[in-house]
Amino acid sequence: MSIDLGGAMPHPHIMKRRWPVLVAAGATLAGAVACSSGAASGGRSGGSGSLACRDGRILVGIAKADSGFASFFDVAGKRGLEVAVQEINARGGVKGCKIQTIAGDTKSDPAIAAQVARSLITKGAQILVVADDFDTGVAAARIGQREGLLTLSLAASSTVFGKAVGDRFFSGGITTTELGLGQARYALDRKWTSTFQVLDPGLAYFTEQDAAYRRLYEGGGGKVGGVDRVDSLGGQSDFSSTISKIKAARPDVVQALAVFPAVGTFVKQLRAAGVDTPVLGNITLQTRELPKLVGAGRADDIYYAAQVYFDGAGTDPKTDPAIATFAKTYEKMFGHFPEQANAPGAYQTFLAIDTALQRKDVTDAASAAKAIREQRGLKVPGGTLDQWKDGYAVWSPTIVGLEGGRFTSVTAYNATSLRSGAA
Q: Coiled coil where (predicted)?
């Protein structure tokens, strides 16, 4: 059940500014705790941070963008959350109490996000969900923390978000550390010992992956032999100069760290130039639009690290059946296949948080936060939540491949092992 406080529908677009921390893939919130029949309908029953059932519901406030540059990511995450809410409610809710959501459009503006957060809390929100990005979500998250609410970012990848907010905040997207280490481990496993890097330095999302990649890759004997900086956020569409450098360098693998659709345009031009070197990247390549852009006949030897493999749902039997079901439900609810990785990522993390909130000892934000921090090696549809650290989720990454124009699940890595190997 959802109440919408307003906002326009989003459309795909290139982000119009440089985010210090880009959103990655996915996270979630959850509803919470024991139903109590005598709760009042207005205000927070049971005191600040209470997760008591009120009028048969637990109210989750969603302060995310339905409009503006962040909406493509935020809406996908919100929809993934809604699928999870429906699933949890269908099996009885949280300890018999149904989850209800109430939403407000932050318009991709941090100042407006703070106002929306206050409004949602005034309307009785017991859990607050904020934008899938540090910059656009931190102001709203601090409101939730200050008011004592369990506060969540569905898919932010930042490792500093939690430290900047407080002990009742959690961000659930796979981090740049796991994405970078996963790429490095896969490159070493394939014996790709020389890398040419195509890097947009305007996003910490990419520069942080670069640092993690080099730490494990060069420590394992690999060498980043060339780097060409591009401006994917600025809409760069001609990569001929970069491709000429790649031809001259003749690397074992090309690492593409740029946003879509520019990164897809780069791969298209690379293949059109006759360069069949494997391409390695991250979630910015994780869209069904990629093979359409590159061309099915040329969408080959493309690999990327991700939180969850959902790309092959309905076409690849390797897809986790629960994720395939998620994709079908998503399409039924919203009219199309999940457009972006925040959707299944939000769904995954929602179920992880829900596992903690189902505990009998969880009655408020503080006890919920304690239960969340205690999670280790938690299996959820399509992946494993290794642990929580400093308020962010550590996911074991999966490697997805495009081979012969078709998506496939290639392998998965344990996050703890990756981090220890890169130490």
A: none
